[in-house]
Every structure is written in structure tokens, then in C-alpha cells.
Write a structure and sequence with these properties.
Helix content: 40-55%
Distance between the termini: 72 Å
Number of strands: 14
Shape: globular
Largest sheet: 10 strands, mixed
Length: 448
């Protein structure tokens, strides 16, 4: 019955298109006005296909707001499983409806983000701190998480920065949380081990840069009327925009019957980008902490944010930070115009665990004058572009974790990173600090 309905719909759609073609043939024989209409119809036809028209049958974009509503739950191993079947998450819940399936996946992702926030507070006993620190009741706000002793611990402080995209505080990769488990996809193992070993903890939230609010009709009108152009020019422009909108709306009712609301972004003060966020948290929290040794773990774009922090606060970072673990960092010492003194400090105090087929901690060659690179035991798949050969890929000291997947580097290098931190503290506290050896290594590196 459904197949018959779809065939009937296709038949009617073709009939409508034929009607349009007949109209075009008639208009082509007319004057300039008719030719303009013909051009508009041609533009419409060039953007319509039957696959798009079939989206009229798309179910409503309405999804549950709880894991139980999706009929999924995390089992004792931290794996997402269906409540009834015990099977892993299925993306293609409805065949031939990719857009609907994607929206469903995104809705589930938002629930998981809130779930991880809860775990940070209930399992890791972190507190949620609002940003900006002096935010008013009405302005957009963000937040971070920190342990009770984050600012008072006199010994060690661990700072975690995730990468770019949809991930939020406490996550390394949403895909890993959904398809693998909580251990590999979240920062929870790092937080728990850090607390066990006596660290204070601060979890950054660099992707929470704005809130989205629905535009009112007045705001939409204001955005189109706020130009300083002459009235005559603006009138012609408005006329064109109205005609364009009319054609687009006609097309949209077929392409996207469930038209989403028009929204605007309201950026969070002093936290409008990952780089701004990192600097703000440094100024208001990390730099104010009592810890003698501050450590960073920064994944992917988080590494870029850390390097930008160091450029802006070089003296403070050098004075307070003992060691930095990067995992497949995408920072670029040339593009970011990193100075020589920072590059030298990074070679001494940073290490980058990168995607590689080599065993964990195997040294990986680098053509770049920043920190060492080692294998994270992850290997980039043949189908994926090799970031190591990209002109924008200038990682610091990198350790290979023996994994081929970028998003797994933080999890695979987990034990090595804490060992790296311990060795950094020992070297710092040792009465016989091996400065000559490290300097000679640096000279050899520069000569190479």
C-alpha cells in the first residue's frame, strides 16, 4: 500500500513538472516579462528532483528527550545498548530517510551530552561553574566543571580540553560514546585517575560559545532594513530578495516540508570561540590556582587552543605549566606564528601522541620544529586524508598510540600520558635535573 502511494505521488509530481514545462513553452513566445518568468521556472526546475520531492513523506522531526524514550541504556560496561534487543545503536532506523535518521542521531547526541554532564557531577564529583564569572541574569552563559580542590590543591592540577565540533565538556568523541563505550569516548577515566593520584581537575567547555534563539518577525525585518544604502537601491534590492524568497519558499515546501525555525546566535561574552574560552579560563581560574604543577591534556583543536593560550600568556604558562600532553593536535606553529622561545619550550615540555600504526610510544618523525611526536597506537585509515602530510598539520611532540583513528588517540595514550606527567614532576623536583642532556638533544634536533 505504501509503495502504491509513493508511486502515485511520483506520478503526480511528474505531472506537475510537465505542466511547468508546458507553461515555459508558452512563456517563451511572449515578451520580456514572460521571459523573466521563464528564467525563474528554469531556475526552479534545475533545483528540483524526485528524490527531494519524496521528502514530503518524511515523518515529523519529533524525538524523545530521554535515553529511555529512545529505548537505549548504557550497560555495566558503559556501552549503549537497546533495552529490548541488547543490540548496539542503529543509525538507519528508517530506510531511505537519511535526513530524518541524522536528525534522530543528533537528538540522541544532545541527550548523551546531558548524560555525561550528570556523570561528571555524580560519579566524578565535579562542580559546575558558570561563565562569565560576573554574568548577569539575562545574558548568555557557558560553564565548566572542576573538582572542589581545583584552585586550592597545592601540588597538581589537570586541565582537559576536547576538540572541535559537537562535543562538549567531558567528551572526547560523541561517535565513540554511541558506538564504542563511555571509557573511550569521554574524559571520565582521566578525571577519575587524576583524582586518585591527587590532582585537582578543571574540565573546559570550549565549544559552548553561543546560544541559539528563534528570530522574531521584527528581528528578521530589522536585519533587512538596517542597511545604509540609498533608498532607491535598497528598494530594488528588497524587490529582488522578495522574488528570490518567493521562489525559494515554493521550492522549500517540497524539499523541506518541516521547515526549521529561523534562529540567531547570541555569543557568550569573552567565550565566543575555543581560543577565547581557553584564555578566559586561564585568567580567571588556572592562573589563580595554588598548584605548583599544572598539566594539560588537549585533543585535536584543543591543542591549537592551548598554543594560542601560550602565545597570549607566554610568561605565565611557562611559569606555571609543568607538562602538556597533546593527542593528534591540529595546531600549526607557522600559521599561528609561534615564536622561537615558545617552540623551544614546547620541545622541552610537550608531547603529541598521534595516529600511527606503530606500537604505543614509538617515536614518530616530524619535519616541524616543535614538540616530539610519538605513536598513540592509532593508524589513519587509507580512505582518510593523511593529516601528517597536510600543509596545515604541524604537531608538537607526538607519541603514536597504535591506533588508526584520530578520535581514539586520547583513549589509547591514556596510560602513557600519566606516566609522562609523573616523569615531568620527577625531573622538575630532582636535585640533578638533566638539563645538559635535554639541551644537547635540542641542539641535535635543531641541527637535524
Amino acid at each position: 500500500m505504501i509503495v502504491l502511494q509513493r508511486l502515485m505521488y511520483i506520478y503526480l509530481s511528474i505531472l506537475n513538472l510537465l505542466t511547468v514545462w508546458v507553461m515555459m513553452a508558452q512563456l517563451q513566445q511572449g515578451g520580456p516579462d514572460e521571459k523573466e518568468k521563464t528564467t525563474a521556472l528554469k531556475d526552479l526546475l534545475s533545483r528540483i528532483d524526485l528524490d527531494e520531492l519524496m521528502k514530503k513523506d518524511e515523518p515529523p522531526l519529533e524525538f524523545p528527550d530521554t535515553l529511555e524514550g529512545f529505548e537505549y541504556i548504557f550497560n555495566e560496561k558503559g556501552q549503549l545498548r537497546h533495552i529490548k534487543t541488547g543490540e548496539p545503536f542503529v543509525f538507519n532506523y528508517r530506510e531511505d530517510l537519511h535526513r530524518w535518521n541524522q536528525k534522530r542521531y543528533e537528538a540522541l547526541g544532545e541527550i548523551i551530552t546531558k548524560y555525561v554532564y550528570e556523570l561528571l557531577q555524580t560519579e566524578c564529583h565535579l562542580k559546575k561553574v558558570t561563565l562569565p564569572v560576573d554574568a548577569t541574569e539575562s545574558e548568555p552563559k557557558s560553564f565548566i566543571f572542576m573538582s572542589e580542590d581545583a584552585l586550592t590543591n597545592p601540588d597538581k592540577l589537570l586541565v582537559l580540553i576536547h576538540g572541535n565540533g559537537v562535543v562538549r565538556a567531558g567528551q572526547w568523541a560523541r561517535r565513540l560514546i554511541i558506538n564504542e563505550d563511555l571509557d573511550s569516548g569521554t574524559q571520565i577515566p582521566y578525571i577519575k585517575r587524576a583524582i586518585e593520584e591527587g590532582y585537582g581537575v578543571i574540565v573546559l567547555n570550549p565549544n559552548e560559545n553561543y546560544i541559539e534563539v528563534e528570530k522574531t518577525k521584527a528581528q528578521v525585518q530589522l536585519s533587512s532594513d538596517s542597511s545604509d544604502e540609498p533608498a532607491e537601491k535598497r528598494e530594488r534590492k528588497d524587490k529582488i530578495q522578495k522574488e528570490t524568497k518567493k521562489r525559494r519558499d515554493f521550492y522549500e515546501k517540497y524539499r523541506n516540508p518541516q521547515k526549521e525555525k529561523e534562529t540567531m546566535q547570541m555569543y557568550i561574552r569573552d567565550n565566543g570561540s575555543p581560543e577565547e574560552h581557553a584564555i578566559y579560563v586561564w585568567d580567571h581560574f588556572i592562573s589563580q590556582s595554588a598548584a605548583e604543577n599544572v598539566f594539560f591534556v588537549a585533543h585535536s583543536y584543543g591543542g591549537l587552543a592551548f598554543v594560542e593560550l601560550m602565545i597570549q600568556r607566554e610568561a605565565e604558562v611557562k611559569n606555571k605549566v609543568t607538562a602538556v600532553a597533546l593527542t593528534d593536535s591540529v595546531h600549526n606553529v607557522w600559521h599561528q606564528e609561534v615564536g622561537k622561545t615558545i617552540r623551544e619550550w614546547m620541545r622541552e615540555n610537550c608531547c603529541n601522541w598521534v595516529s600511527s600504526s606503530e606500537p604505543l610510544d614509538t617515536s614518530v618523525e616530524s619535519m616541524l620544529p616543535d614538540c616530539p611526536r610519538v605513536s598513540a597506537g592509532t593508524v589513519v585509515p587509507p580512505s582518510a586524508p593523511s593529516l601528517a602530510h597536510s600543509p596545515l598539520w604541524f604537531p608538537a611532540l607526538e607519541h603514536c598510540t597504535g591506533t588508526e583513528r584520530h578520535e581514539l588517540t586520547s583513549w589509547k595514550s591514556f596510560p602513557s600520558i600519566f606516566k609522562f606527567f609523573s616523569e615531568a614532576v620527577e625531573a622538575k623536583n630532582s636535585a640533578v635535573k638533566p638539563t645538559p642532556t635535554r639541551r644537547s638533544n635540542r641542539i641535535k634536533y635543531e641541527e637535524l
